[in-house]
Amino acid sequence: MRHYDVFGIGNALVDILIPTEDSFLQKMGWNKGIMTLVDAEVQGGVLTALDGHKKELRSGGSAANTMIALANSGGTGTYTGKVSEDTYGEFYKQDMEKAGILFEVPPSKEGHTGTCVILTTPDAERTMLTHLGISSTLTKQDLDLEKLKVSSYSYVEGYLWDGPSTKEACLLAMEESKKAGVKVAFTFSDPFCVNRSREDFLKLTKEYCDLVFCNAEEAKALAATESKEDALKFISSICKNVMMTDGSNGAFSSVNGTISHIGGFPAQNLLDTTGAGDCFAAGVLYGLTHGFSPDNAARWGNYVASRIVQEIGPRLSVRLMGRQEEILGKTRS
User: Fold this and answer.
1) Are the beta carbons of 155 and 185 closer than 8 angstroms?
2) pLDDT band (50, 70, 90) for residue 315
3) Which residues on neighbouring strands pair with residue 254, listed in sequence order?
4) How many CA atoms, within 13 angstroms, populate the side-chain half-sphere of residue 7?
5) What molecular functions are annotated in GO for this chain (predicted)?
6) Is the dihedral of CA 27, 28, 29, 32 positive or negative?
7) With a threshold of 0.85, does the pTM exceed it?
8) Per-residue pLDDT tens for 10-20?
9) Chain mean pLDDT for the chain
10) Strand, helix or coil at 310?
11) Which fold has domain 4-12+61-112+133-328?
């Protein structure tokens, strides 16, 4: 069996990308810049209201975005998520594999593939309305443990910590990773995920994680502090490797309690922040599985993130494979 850099696990959602205006969000009453879970009826109403607007489809979900950007950098991976035997489900599998990520989870004969309507305003902020659909029924039986065991990292998204069956799948992946010597990477995903499951996230971080990804707001939520510096120190005390993004300020890397600030790359044409954190994680995971030091892995993560914010949607239109030396210089380790 071939080796994989990363075994990814997350929600399998078809992203529906639609540019819109602030006035539309205000009219609909949606909070700008956050992700909101909605039912099929509400999401259908939003799509009806936007009938006639330009729409683009992408295979997505937070961890899936990371896996696709990993492949774009030259990494290898397999992804576990749940789709249905419908048009969106067929599109999802084909689009993931076209992007270079193996996707072999048998589709469900019931329900509908999950979707995420991503509304992007002119200031590049994205507001996401997510209908999880069948993705929320992922179970531990959907995990291919043989592929997990031949991976360098497992990568689990915090969005999965919502239902009993997806929690079981997360825990099994982490437990089997530890048994097989596979490193566990976990992303907190969103401040609301942390606030809703703070005690569980603390336990997972302490007991299972070799690497955690978070942004400053997620870190502050987990540490219960308003100081991002104190938050990072706290998380660093319970996990030996922490990568915290801080918007245009770049990122912070903590290895065994030693914290480094990693400057960002300027975005010449900021269009859409969708997937920036996901792409940062992709760059870091690529770097760590290809011999980069943690700081240089974070530098590559910053670069990948700087490229995605110059795109509409969470998919890079440029190939980054083989460009690490050009961007980072010859000394990468």
Assistant:
1) yes
2) confident
3) 242, 259
4) 27
5) kinase activity
6) negative
7) yes
8) 999 999 989 89
9) 93
10) coil
11) UDP-N-acetylmuramoyl-L-alanine:D-glutamate ligase (3.40.1190)
